[in-house]
Amino acid sequence: MIADFFTPVHPDVLGSTKDYHPASVRNTIQINDGTLPNFEESKVAIIGVPDFRGGQMEDMEGVDAIRSEFYRLFAGRWGFEISDLGDILPGESMADTQYALRSAVEYLLKQNVIPVILGGSQDLTLPMFQAYGAMEQSVNIASVDSSFDLGIPGQPLSNGSYLSHIVMDKSGNLFNFSNLGYQTYYINKDEIDLMENMFFETHRLGTVQADIREAEPILRDADLITFDINAVRMSEAPANKYGSPNGFYGEEFCALARYAGMSDKCSSFGIFEYLGGEDQNNHTARLIAQTIWYFMEGVSLRYNDFPFGNRKTYAHYIVPMEEIDMDLSFYKSDKSGRWWIEVPVEPNLELSHNRHMLIPCSYKDYQQATEQEVPDRWWRAFKRLS
Q: What is the predicted pLDDT for the residue at 78?
């Protein structure tokens, strides 16, 4: 039973109900205070994993600081149960922690509960990804990060190389990876070439900031979404080891989390690399707490359209493309007004890939197609499915 993996929330953080406003998060969610809550009835379950060994660091303060700030916020009109399962403490080895996290995430996924992981170094994304192996489906990952974290070939697992371990994972379950917010001076040009060759999506910081609404379809297509606090500029989030003068502003980070929560496809979420010992007056912990709040709000706003809705009720637009001698089919949801574009699937394609044949897009992609320009995200998906 996964209950064996968890330790209760620290009493100093938990306090008493009198220490918090009756309408606060603290007094409206179920919390592991020594007894594991009935999380199977929850929509979202929070898990702290304060293991930083993948970043060659030791910092046990971060998770509790984030919780303290999150508990003090007023709960939104979310309309679903939230559980805080407590912490998975670092095991004797990194592999022990990974096993516990993988088992917990796998169990929650099977119960249709969304795990929200508070790390810890970002290499913990690997066991989160591996948890999908039991689901027998291919997986899309989206990462809000200033770098790709591919590392050097053959490099042991770390927060700077976890993606290469996912790409090389023997399950072969990775279908697509998308990065939002990379900063070019942190990226080896060979890494950019590799991402292009694998038909993955990468979006520079400036491009995302120019129109953050265009990030919504990317996050809508992801099963696992991971945020690295290093993606935020250091003036907004001082508690990270690799802080940069450039990066997302706090409100942009929260907007991306809201889009992540709104994604009907997103079934796990993680925020990593917060170092409590480096924070200033809990400034960064407060930002992460608000980011989690916005993710919860996003979950409350899910429309349950594709892949859960019936696209027979969607508006269907067909655009003939002369360049590729093919018609592009666009669908607009009657529930949300959001757009999708269909990618033709080979008859012998694995069934696990069929859920990716209708990919999220924006109205801008439709406009682009009407001007006889094939949308980039369609090309990439077509190459991956061919």
A: 97
Kindly give the parts of the chain with pLDDT less than 50.
Answer: none
- 339-342 and 326-332: which strand pairing? antiparallel
Beta bridge partners of 315: 332
Rounded to whole angstroms, the Cα distance separating 323 from 325 reads: 6
Residues linked to residue 49 through DSSP beta bridges, in sequence order: 119
Residues pairing with 80 in the sheet: none
The Cα angle at residue 111 between residues 110 and 113, in degrees rounded to 5: 110
C-beta separation of 125 from 164 below 8 A: no
Return the pLDDT at 62.
72
User: Residue 88: helix, strand or coil by DSSP?
Assistant: coil
CA dist 39 → 1, 72, 99, 130, 243 (Å): 13, 21, 20, 22, 35
Tokens of 358: 């209708």
pLDDT at position 137 is 81
Inter-residue contact 186 to 146 (CB < 8 Å): yes
Whether the model clears a pTM of 0.90, i.e. scores above it, the answer is: yes
Q: In this structure, what token pair is assigned to residue 81?
A: 């149960």
CA distances from 206 to 183, 196, 212, 229, 244 (A): 9, 19, 10, 17, 14
Pairing of strands 139-144, 114-119: unpaired
Sign of the alpha-carbon dihedral angle for 341, 344, 348, 349: negative
Taking CA atoms, 373 is separated from 183, 324, 367, 382, 383, in Å, by 27, 10, 9, 15, 17
Omega before 151 cis (within 30°)?
no
